[in-house]
Amino acid sequence: MLLLHTNAVYTGSGNINNSPAFVNYTGCNFRLSSGSPCLNSGLNQDWMTNGLDLDRRKRIRYGMVGMGTCEMIKDVTVYRFR
């Protein structure tokens, strides 16, 4: 059983006190949802430059690493002009 501590307050740089907003906590999908405060809010490290997340995708996306183990890939519309 995974316990999520919600009553502790952690201070200092790099910490959050809000829910990480997982995609489906009860279903054990611990990827970050699109509304998560953890998206693109981590601390880039040198080893992450060519590193991969747990889904085997590029670790640093959109300039800043996320706090989760899997990076969020934004849904986008791609246009092709001729």
Give a nutshell description of this structure.
This protein has 82 residues and is largely without helices or strands. The protein has no helices and 2 strands. It has one domain (1-82).
Give me some keywords for this one:
globular, 82 residues, little secondary structure, two-stranded antiparallel ribbon, 0% helix, 2 strands
Tell me the radius of gyration: 15 Å
Helix content: under 10%
Q: Report the order of strands and helices.
A: EE
Number of strands: 2
How many H/I helices? 0
Low-confidence stretches: none
Global structural class = little secondary structure
Label the overall shape: globular
N- to C-terminal distance: 54 Å
Q: Write down the overall mean pLDDT.
A: 82
Describe the overall structure:
With about 80 residues, this protein is low in regular secondary structure. It has one domain (about 1-80). It is built from no helices and two strands. It has strands at about 20-25, 30. It has a two-stranded antiparallel ribbon. Strand 1 (about 20-25) and strand 2 form a beta hairpin. The relative contact order is 0.19. The model has no long low-confidence stretch (mean pLDDT about 80).
Give the topology.
Layout: E1 22-24, E2 29-32
Antiparallel strand pairs: 1-2
